[in-house]
Specification:
Length: 559
């Protein structure tokens, strides 16, 4: 399952995932046994590769002819793609999609091979040992598409709330695969409403974007957490021969903006009640199936939350579809966590971060649930070189999407020099866990510094991580750390302080569920897990579940 709705009616597609592929490791000692492995999947869930780091091969046959497009939603962490034994593409980053377009392949059966590599090394600036597990494998869906002489790469839709109602603007990317000139048009519909017709002209092998004007949409209804109204947007490419291609996506009419210290959703002052959530499950690794995603969202909504932060990478688009449908606001961020200046001076850092941002925004632009873009969680925002990197990435986001706010979760207490760039100031704080300063005192000192001594003065303020660890089932009257009782006590004090802090737009609890971490983190993480979840890795509620539920449900989505 790739999306929760059909994305093409004219273009022929076939899902190559949701199937068994041939799998074997590469370069290991002894005979490399071939097994049947599920795709999507993570090889850490196979008995012989539980802790394997290195290269492995996935292969299968497919039937096609002519021009084709192979789309990979996620391969961890680097991918090399071969068709009939010949290299045809490669990609870095497990959490963003990529494609391979092949022209004029012969009719018949072809061999597809994907070599995945989850090893760490100097060529990787972002994929490093970290406080979450970096799994290996084809972890998200794979699609085969048959193309004609030209096709639609993507459509982006931007809604605008004006005094007289909703307006919208569409941008369509078209690629001409032929050597000849292409004359045609693109027809755009939203729901059952005709939106625009764009004439297009492309020279041979040219790729180009076309945009509409800002057009009225008097029939549009607002998307919100209370009423997540969605519309299918359909673009059809027409040539002299008729309908040649199409693309279908889904959009919602909502406005996100900041005004002074407030985040406004459709003009209302928004209160964030959220969770940080990793894509992680002991049965599936990072390749959660649809049912597991649904179950997570069921629990999150039961807890009274209205937002999820996708730490620390872009999420599977299938999960974003569910958030769109269920009215869950999403903070999505690029792939970077806890990088020092030394890490950020890796010669590949800027390029790999930039690629991740471009791929994330291009793929996920239309999701109304995404209300903010994040970058560089807990990185070197207190150094001049760090400041240069933050500035460049914020500017890149603005060039790709000038309509959503930007932020970065910082842990640089009173030393961050990058707060002038984003629209929203965000901090990760752990009073009652990593230090004993009273929560209200710590929060007040930080907030006063932001307002009086930093470049973040006058902006909305979010707590993007707060919480305490607890090992499921460890209960003691002593209320010591790692006990469920201590987590209850800590969260009560933390949430009370955050929600009573004037000028704070809300909070993300770290975290929704316990998750596996890289083996090298075992010394500071009991069970080689990050144990700060409100539920454990199997989604069993800890004592803190009801505490958070009472707190979140007592407050509305708006101030």
């Amino acid at each position: 399952m790739i999306r929760t709705f059909e994305t093409h009616k004219i273009r022929k597609t076939a899902e190559l995932s949701s199937a068994l592929w041939n799998f074997h490791t590469i370069g290991t000692q002894g005979e490399e046994a071939v097994i049947q492995a599920p795709v999507p999947g993570c090889w850490e869930n196979y008995p012989d590769t539980v802790s394997y780091r290195g290269q492995a091969s996935y292969s299968r046959e497919f039937e096609a002819k002519g021009n084709i497009r192979l789309e990979f939603k996620g391969v961890s962490h680097t991918a090399s793609v071969l068709v009939d034994g010949k290299p045809v593409g490669s990609h870095y980053n497990a959490y963003t999609p990529f494609d391979v377009v092949l022209k004029d392949i012969r009719p018949g059966i072809h061999q597809l091979e994907v070599i995945a590599d989850n090893s760490f090394g100097p060529d990787s600036a972002l994929h490093v040992p970290n406080d979450y597990q970096s799994y290996g494998g084809i972890s998200r869906g794979v699609v085969l598409e048959e193309l004609g002489e030209a096709y639609l790469s993507w459509i982006h839709f931007t809604p605008f709330l004006r005094k007289d109602g909703w307006y919208g603007k569409a941008e369509i990317r078209v690629r001409n695969l032929s050597s000849g000139r292409l004359d045609g048009s693109v027809e755009v519909e939203i729901g059952k409403n005709s939106f625009a017709v764009l004439p297009i002209v492309l020279e041979g092998e040219e790729e180009k974007s076309f945009s509409t004007e800002e057009l009225p949409c008097p029939w549009a209804e607002c998307w919100s957490p209370e009423s997540p109204v969605l519309y299918l947007i359909t673009a059809v490419l027409r040539t002299a021969d008729g309908a040649a291609d199409d693309i279908i996506d889904r959009v919602g009419f909502r406005e996100i903006r900041t005004e002074g210290k407030d985040i406004l959703l459709n003009g209302r002052k928004l209160r964030i009640k959220g969770f940080c959530r990793h894509e992680d499950h002991p049965q599936f690794g990072c390749a959660l199936p649809f049912s597991a995603m649904q179950h997570d969202l069921m629990l999150i909504k039961d807890l009274g939350a209205n937002s999820i932060r996708t730490v620390h990478y872009p999420n599977d688009e299938l999960f974003l579809d569910l958030c769109d449908e269920q009215g869950i606001l999403v903070w999505e961020e690029n792939h970077a966590r806890g990088l020092s200046e030394e890490n950020m001076r890796n010669p590949h850092f800027k390029q790999q971060c930039g690629d991740c941002i471009r791929e994330m925004i291009t793929a996920h632009y239309n999701h109304p649930s995404i209300y903010i873009w994040g970058i560089l969680n807990e990185c070197a925002s207190d150094t001049e070189y760090g400041r240069e990197c933050y500035s460049e990435q914020y500017e890149l986001i603005k060039s790709l999407d000038p309509y959503r706010p930007r932020s970065s979760a910082s842990c640089r207490f009173k030393t961050d020099i990058c707060l002038g760039y984003p629209e929203v100031v965000s901090y990760n704080i752990y009073p009652k866990w990593y230090h004993d300063v009273p929560v209200e005192d710590y929060l007040d000192e930080l907030y006063q510094w932001i307002q009086n001594e930093s470049e973040g003065t006058g902006k909305p303020f979010l707590i993007t991580e707060i919480g305490a660890g607890a090992i499921y089932g460890y209960r003691t009257p002593a209320h010591v750390k790692w006990s469920e009782e201590y987590q209850v006590q800590a969260l009560k004090e933390q949430l009370q302080a955050v929600f009573s802090r004037e000028g704070c737009s809300g909070v993300y609890i770290w975290q929704f569920c316990d998750v596996r971490v890289c083996d090298s983190w075992f010394g500071s993480r009991p069970r080689t897990m990050n144990n700060k979840g409100i539920v454990d890795e199997y989604r069993r509620p800890k004592l803190a579940y009801e505490v958070v539920k009472d707190s979140y449900r007592s407050l509305g989505n708006y101030f």
